[in-house]
Write a structure and sequence with these properties.
Structural class: mainly alpha
CATH class: Mainly Alpha
Distance between the termini: 16 Å
Helix content: over 70%
CATH topology: Helix Hairpins
Radius of gyration: 14 Å
Length: 70
């Protein structure tokens, strides 16, 4: 997901997306430790998406940047 897509979403949508990504990241890490067929590149992508969402939420909470109109 691109940063422009993330900035276009509301805080509620971002929190929902963050929760889903954290669940997916947990399951990917679990699969990687138990199976050999886990996709390591998807783990990195999920980690980066989580970081992007948390960054945007922090920017909005600290009034650095507001929500951009759609």
């Amino acid at each position: 997901m691109k940063i422009d897509d993330i900035r276009g979403k509301t805080n509620g949508e971002l929190e929902f997306e963050l929760k889903n990504l954290e669940k997916e990241l947990f399951s990917l890490r679990f699969k990687a430790s138990t199976e050999a067929s886990a996709n390591p590149s998807r783990i990195n992508e999920a980690r980066r998406e989580v970081a992007r969402i948390k960054t945007v939420l922090h920017e909005r909470a600290s009034k650095i940047r507001g929500q951009e109109p759609r």
